[in-house]
Structure formats: C-alpha cells, structure tokens
Amino acid sequence: MMVVLSAGKAVLAAVAATLATSSVVNISQTARIMQDSMSVSPLSSRAFKNTQEAVSVLQSMSRAELLRVYIASEEPPKTLDVLEGEWDGLLLNNNGPIMTSVSIFLTNRLFGRGREWNGKGFSNNVGSTSSTRRLGFNRFHGQQPRENNHIPSDEKGKECSAKAGHSVMEQQHTFEYGIENSRLDSSRKSIILQYSNHQGPLSLWKTMSDELRIIRIPGEDSMLMIGFGSMAWSGGHWNASPFCLWKSDKGTPP
C-alpha cells in the first residue's frame, strides 16, 4: 500500500510540475509578444476569403501566431448591437498538446459540467452593474432536451436550453460584456467579458474574463471574433487560452 501511495504522489508531483512549466512557457510567451506588439502590422481586410477558411487557418496556428493575429485584429465596433445573437465557437491551440488538453478539460468537463462548449450568445439586456455593459451566455451541447426555450435574462446565469435543428444547446454561465481597455494589449480597446457578478464567492469561474477582437470577412460582409479567456488563479491574461467565434448562421467550419 505504501508503495502505491508513493507512486501516486510521484505521478501527481510530475503532473503538477509539467503543468507549472507549461504555464510559465505561456506566460513568458505572452509577455514577449505583447512587449513587441507595436511591430505587429494590422490584419489585412482581405486576409481570409470566407468564414470557413478563416476558422480553418486559425485552427492550424500556434498560440504565438494567434496572439499576433489578436493584436493585429480590429478593435470593437462603436456599437455593441452588431454582436447580438448566437455565435458558434471552437477552442484553439494553447501551445501544444498539454495546455490544449488542459483547456479542453477545464472548458468541457468542469466549466461545461461534462458538456462540450459550443460558443456564446450576446443579448441586448443591460448588465446589473453598468448601463454600458450587456448580458451574454455560454452555449453547450446538451445531453437531454429541456422544455424552456429562451435567452437567460436573470442575474444568476441559471441554466436554460434551446433547440437548434436536431441538437439541443444548453445555455449557462452568464457574463457581462462591454468595450474596455484590453488586458493583453493595453494601448487599445477590446470586447471584455466578465463573469464575477454571476458566480458564487467560491466558484472557480469567479475571476474568469474573456476578451475579443474582430476579424472582418469582406466577401461575406461578416466578421469572426478571436478571443482569449483566463482566470486570475491560473495566471490571468498572461496565461490566457485562445478561442474563436463566428455567427451561427454562417454554418459549420471544415
């Protein structure tokens, strides 16, 4: 028994050391790229032909490349109205298989309670703390159909669900969003998503924050958003994980 316990402790210590090392790599990478952010050229308005190509290219990029794309992307629009509606989403490469697997585990197993994260929704409902912030929610692939079918407008982010074709999308984890200074690129603005007012005091997600910037798809008169999500307890924005969002009516990427 003692041998088994010792072996188990050794494995846990090795896992912890690996995660700590990978986090340090992410943090130092973010600091290095942001320090040199002024040298990053703005993203061309014709960088991508369509939404599917943009999502496919982003999926193939490293975290360092995604950070540079984020810096090069557009600041938020003057009005938040253009965000209203539901957006499909994908998690992107978080600096190799270890940290990418951690992001998937945290997002789907813990944040989603065993449901795959599928994107976000943005409503016009005003947030509880500021008239310049609005409410949104996260979407997950549901396991069981539910009867209610509405956008959550309460302040607790309670679960609800909505049917999309033959699948069921469940909505949970309300956030407030608005246009604020970027944590990653402090000289410019981003769309900032804050969860603190809709999580309990002991919630893992109390300090969660996402930030988004826009990639235009001129051929479709549409846009894609690239984002980075983080929690203060895991290193904050320095150790943020990348993802992307595109309007649900633009279909599924390749």
Q: What is the strand and helix layout of this fold?
A:
Elements: H1 2-35, H2 51-60, H3 63-72, E1 85-91, H4 97-111, E2 117-126, E3 134-141, E4 160-164, E5 167-181, E6 189-194, E7 209-217, E8 222-230, E9 241-247
Antiparallel strand pairs: 1-2, 1-9, 2-3, 3-5, 4-5, 5-6, 6-7, 7-8, 8-9
Helix pairs in contact: 1-3
Please give a structural write-up:
- This protein has helices spanning 2-35, 51-60, 63-72, 97-111; strands at residues 85-91, 117-126, 134-141, 160-164, 167-181, 189-194, 209-217, 222-230, 241-247.
- It is α+β, with helices and mostly antiparallel strands.
- Strand 2 and strand 3 form a beta hairpin.
- The longest helix has 34 residues, at 2-35.
- It is globular and about 40 Å long.
Fraction of residues in β-strands: 25-35%
What structural class is derived from the secondary structure elements? alpha+beta
Mean pLDDT: 82
**C-alpha Rg (nearest Å):** 19 Å
Low-pLDDT stretches are 7-12, 146-166
Q: Which outline best applies? A: globular
How many extended strands? 9
Encode the helix/strand succession as letters: HHHEHEEEEEEEE
Biggest sheet descriptor: 8 strands, antiparallel, barrel
- The main sheet orders its strands as 1-2-3-5-6-7-8-9
